[in-house]
């Protein structure tokens, strides 16, 4: 591992910095409470347009106006939108990710979590949340909070374009029946920890919302919901338009 440093535990950011500096085998190990540990290559965050899944390419086609890219990673979506002439700002909570995006030429970058954008100078026509990006809200309570907060960022007629997944398949028994505690937390609320080199990050929550629960929460919060596509991994792309 290289000596690139960030000021707080930031395993993903370190991996992105190392990849940016030529260490192309940099890989984060991801631990969760629902599956075995799995590798996450830093290279995945540096994808070109034609390396992106179809749902991500479709989301980029659906962008309009001024775009806020939430959870920007290494900036692959922001850079593609810049190349198409969009005014786009990309934010990420990872210090390393922000430094990588700046180095790669994303013109407007900030380090924030998704609830800290309270002093924006102008509104956005599109909030973009890709790579299961709806998960940034963390939990169903976080989803409710975000849906109430997002209109403060959106211009009139603005949209949220987000991908998420139904992970109920993780709870199927050999007969295909779902086995989880209906009185426990929602099955799509997942706890993650990332590890890279000698760094272990803080545990964080990530939400995988099935389409029906997203629709219920969004409609209750005053949004019109459209589902624009779905893939073989039960990931879908949704457009939420605030009706005010």
TrEMBL record:
Q: Which GO terms describe its biological process?
A: methylation
Task: Give the CDD domains listed for this entry.
Answer: AdoMet_MTases
The Gene Ontology terms for molecular function here are: methyltransferase activity
Cross-referenced SUPFAM superfamilies:
S-adenosyl-L-methionine-dependent methyltransferases
Cited InterPro entries: SAM-dependent_MTases_sf
Listed A to Z, the keywords are:
Methyltransferase, Transferase
Name recorded for this polypeptide: Class I SAM-dependent methyltransferase
């Amino acid at each position: 591992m290289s000596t690139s440093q960030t000021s707080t535990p930031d395993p993903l950011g370190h991996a992105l910095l190392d990849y940016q500096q030529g260490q192309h085998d940099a890989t984060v190990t991801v631990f969760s409470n629902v599956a075995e540990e799995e590798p996450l290559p830093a290279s995945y965050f540096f994808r070109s347009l034609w390396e992106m899944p179809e749902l991500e390419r479709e989301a980029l086609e659906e962008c309009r106006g001024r775009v806020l890219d939430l959870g920007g990673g290494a900036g692959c979506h922001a850079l593609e939108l810049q190349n198409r002439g969009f005014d786009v700002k990309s934010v990420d909570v990872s210090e390393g990710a922000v430094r990588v995006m700046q180095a790669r030429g994303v013109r407007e970058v900030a380090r924030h979590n998704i609830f800290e954008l309270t002093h924006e100078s102008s509104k956005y026509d599109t909030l973009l949340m890709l790579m299961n990006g709806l998960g940034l809200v963390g939990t169903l309570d976080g989803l409710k909070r975000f849906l109430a907060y997002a209109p403060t960022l959106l211009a009139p007629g603005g949209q949220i374009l987000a991908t998420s997944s139904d992970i109920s398949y993780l709870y199927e028994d050999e007969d295909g029946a779902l086995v989880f505690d209906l009185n426990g937390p929602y099955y799509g609320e997942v706890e993650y920890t990332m590890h890279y080199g000698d760094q272990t990050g803080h545990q964080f929550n990530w939400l995988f919302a099935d389409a029906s629960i997203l629709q219920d929460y969004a409609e209750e919060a005053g949004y019109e919901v459209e589902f624009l596509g779905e893939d073989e991994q039960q990931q879908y792309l949704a457009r939420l338009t605030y009706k005010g």
